[in-house]
Structures are given as structure tokens and as C-alpha cells.
Amino acid sequence: MTGTPLGDFFRARREALTPQEVGLPEYGRRRVKGLRREEVAMLAGMSSDYFMRLEQGRESSPSAQVVEAVARALRLDDAATEHLWLLVQPPEARAWRGAEGVTVSPQLRQLMDGWSAAPAFVVGPALDILAGNAMAAALHEGFDPADNLARMVFLDPAGREFYQEWERAAHSCAAEIHAAYGHDPDSTRIARVVAELSAHSSQFAGLWARHDVKPKTQEGKHLRHPHVGDLHVLFSTFTVNGTPDQQLVVYQAEPASPTEAAFERLRARADNALAAWAIPPG
Hints:
The protein is α+β, with helices and mostly antiparallel strands. 46% of the residues lie in helices and 12% in strands. It has helices at residues 5-15, 37-44, 48-55, 64-73, 78-87, 106-113, 134-139, 149-154, 158-162, 166-183, 188-200, 202-210, 258-276, and strands spanning 120-123, 129-132, 221-225, 229-240, 243-252. Strand 4 and strand 5 form a beta hairpin. The radius of gyration is 21 Å and the shape is elongated.
């Protein structure tokens, strides 16, 4: 976050491309990483001066044709294109408008508490764990504290053992925070979390500088719990109505699988884990 959000995004994405990837010839030794501004401008069908003003924050409210042309020139996928659209919106047009919901409704807490067979928890834009049920507390009992998914991945030594596909988990965390950042570039909470992670994790700093964007998906996860062993979980994510910056995450096991048996052992630890968890119980 060294320049404007839009400028930082443009620089990162053009630096991630090579001339060959976009069908341009490459002559001699290049002094810049990735594509030059004038090359992106040419691919997008606009003047290099106009694109430079966009990247430097001296041009606001680009037209829909300009946004789509730049998205094509930078080879953005659907998630990155949506992120670009968010970055060019005025603050008052964004759904969150800087109001991060940190209070989880009693109804949602009660719903999660009723799920005794599945870990369920609510996360905020910066991947703070805002609330969770007893199974979620037992699942994350190896972390100290279990209060922010990104901090747990990058800064807690337990993360390397717990997330068996650590590289994928790390990339997902950075990309998910970037997706949330597009909704609210002025978020002080996101800024604090990014600053803390960047200061203490070179891996996070490198991933954040790439400006990859990825909302939460339903890919499976391979986890290793310190007491119940390997877990191959499926998970679903739901946006919370009335609080669009909150997401409900639910982990599930395949029926009659070793993970379902491990969940049974996890349930036996759940009540004690919840009592020790940093998140207030519902």
C-alpha cells in the first residue's frame, strides 16, 4: 500500500506479465520487470500518458470501456477483474463503506452452537476469527492465540504443521485479504494486519506485493491436528446477510471417512477447548 490502491494493483499485475505472455516481441535486455506502462497502454488501446495518469492516481473514474480494456491487457481473471472494478469505484459506492462488522449476531452464534458435529466460525475482512462453536475451538486448539487465520498461517509455528498444504494456505490468505481490501481500501483493521504480517513474515510481504486476488473457495483442506491426526475436510463459506463483510465458514467430513472418525475424537475435546479459547462463546 505504498501508492494508490489502483496504482499498486496495476504495477503488480503488469510486473507479473512477460512480453511473450501477451504476444509482444522482446528485444535486448529490459530494464524493467514485466510489462512497461506503454506496452499495457498499447494492448488496451489507449495513450501511454492516460494509463500513466491512471497508475499514478491522477485520473479518476475511468469509463467501463477503459476498465475492461485494461483487464484484458493485464490478462485478469474474473476475481481480479471484479477487484479492479471495486478499486475504481468511489468510496460511497462500495457496499461496506468502511463499516466493518465486528459483532456477531446472537442468532448466528446460537446457530453455530447447535452444530455439534462440524467446526463453524465467522471471519472478518482481515481474517479475524470473530466467533466460533466448540468444534472450531477444538480444531484450532494448537494455536496461541487462534484469533486471526492469516496470523495463524504466517506467524504461529503451529501453522506449518497444521496446514499440510502450507504454501496454498499462505497464498489463499494473502489473496483473500486483497479481495476484502478491494471492498474497503481505507480499512484500518486490514491495514494493521497487513503491516504486522509484512513486518514479521517475508513470505507474506512477498505474496502481498503480488496483488493476487482470490475470494474464499470450496476447495478441500488437508489439516493435521496435534491430537486427532490428519483431517481431509470439505468446507463451505456463506456471506452473512446484513453484515456483508462477515463470512460463516463450516468444515465438514465425508461420511464414513477417517476424518469423520477424527471429528468424533475432536468432539470429545470440544467443551474444554471452548473454555480456553480466546473467542467469547455464544
